[in-house]
Description:
The structure is a single chain. Helix content is 86%, strand content 0%. The chain is built from two helices and no strands. By secondary structure, the protein is mainly α.
Amino acid sequence: MDKQLLIQMEQLRSKMVEMAALKQNLLHRDVILLSQSLDEIIVQVQRERLALSRVN
């Protein structure tokens, strides 16, 4: 698994939480954009894990 993806995922999560607190609105455009970016990375990590589990 790509450790860089996990680091990027955690950084995006932190930014999203910070932005949500700053805007005090989970539906703010910036929070949603960060959430969508995080979702893409999560799906990528899940795909990699699934591929690894199929190999083993």
